[in-house]
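We give its fold:
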Amino acid sequence: MRNEKKRRLVVWIFGLASAFVWVSGWAGEKEEERLGVLLKEGLSFYETIQDYKAIFRQTEGAKGVLGRTEEIYLKFEKPWKIYLGWLDGGKKGLQVVYEKGKNDGKLVVHEPRLLFGLMPVIFLDRKSPWVRQGSAAYDIEDAGIGTFLFDFAKAVIQAQKENRLKVGFLGRVSEGGLEGEKVEVTFPGTKKDSVYFAYRVRVLFDEKTRLPVEMELFDWQNQKTGVYVYQNLKVNVGGNDEEFRKQIDKHLFRIYSGDRG
């Protein structure tokens, strides 16, 4: 049932994105139309993905002041399973697995310094402040390219219908291993609610996949609240991923793979 609901949501968003492009007239001049094309192509490509991995760089803050960037090894598998392994900073060595509908809805955590390594894994509520330290606004169910892509598409479509959409293209970008087209979208006259998660968003759409690989979010005071980057993105790597096996703790991998033996 959960997968069927997600499928209907994807079809609904894809249909609205297609309608948005069609309404724009295909004149090739409007920036709103170009954004619609990028969203449609990104959603279409995302539907072909079974899994992906990347180095995820997350920087969050408040009142325009950003904190330290966290560098995280991320692997995601559909329908919804994610691994996060912190590579630097105060949480270096922390590894987390979360799968919707499994493990009583809890995070499965490996922290090598916990009790001198005597407890290889522990189970915590997904809103545990211990895991969210330094990223208080973060919920693991918000993680992943797909979640942002769906939420952003819904916000753009709603804003277009309400005549609250402002789009500006910032040109092509090639830096830090990322290459693509950067767009800035503002939602004037809106307020934060279940659709509008930011007042202004800058998104870099990957040149080949049209997936959003860099996002900058601004609040309703027009202050930056977060920067999220997916570097070295690889899609459909499959289950026989030796690099991932070397990265993840062996006890955690048994749970990730469903092998409790």
The radius of gyration is 19 Å. Residues 164 and 187 are 5 Å apart (CA to CA).
